[in-house]
Amino acid sequence: MKNFIKKSLIAAAAMTVAAGIASAQSLKVEIPFSFRAGQTMMAPGTYQLRANSNTLHTAAIQIRRYGHGGGIMMLANAGDVAKQWVAAGVPKVEFSCIEGRCTLAKVWDGTSHDAMEVRPATRDLQENASLSVITLSAIRVK
Fold first, then answer.
1. Phi–psi pair at 141, nearest 5 degrees
2. Is the pLDDT higher at 62 or at 126?
3. Could you say which DSSP state residue 110 is in?
4. Which of 38, 42, 15 is nearest to 29 (CA)?
5. 62: closest CA among 75, 72, 77, 76?
6. What whole-number distance in Å separates Cα of residue 96 and Cα of residue 132?
7. pLDDT band at 33 (very low <50, low <70, confident <90, very high)
């Protein structure tokens, strides 16, 4: 019963955050490798990402592959934006990779004060010395 209540509260919070997504700015990014977004494995392809922040420094990130149905939504926290990103002013999507396995880590729309950071699913990703980072540029779309 406690597990059901916990899942219901999380779902309600996600729906509340998601309510503003329709007005959020979209990004389009070509991702040439498979990656994990939360618990979901995503295939290489062109993706649309929408992040909608709220006042609690959290965001709902919607990830959809162009030309395919469905998609996923995940929660992220506000985080620092790299100075190089701000100087360039170009939206960025960052992945953390270990041994060729990449996970969505950060999304920045090119204008906000914060980037949206997705927490890794495991501690191994945070603590592994062989961690590499891949950053892709994105474009804003309507």
1. -130, 160
2. 62
3. S
4. 42
5. 72
6. 6
7. very high
Contact by Cβ (8 Å): 121, 74? no
pLDDT digits (tens, 9 = 90+) for 67-84: 887 889 998 998 899 999
Nearest C-alpha neighbor of 37 from the set 70, 10, 3, 6: 70
For 15, phi then psi, to 5°, come to -65, -35
| Number of Cα atoms under 13 Å in the Cβ half of residue 23 | 5
Tell me, what amino acid is at 96? S
CA distance 122 to 29: 25
- Taking the model in full, what pTM does it have? 0.73
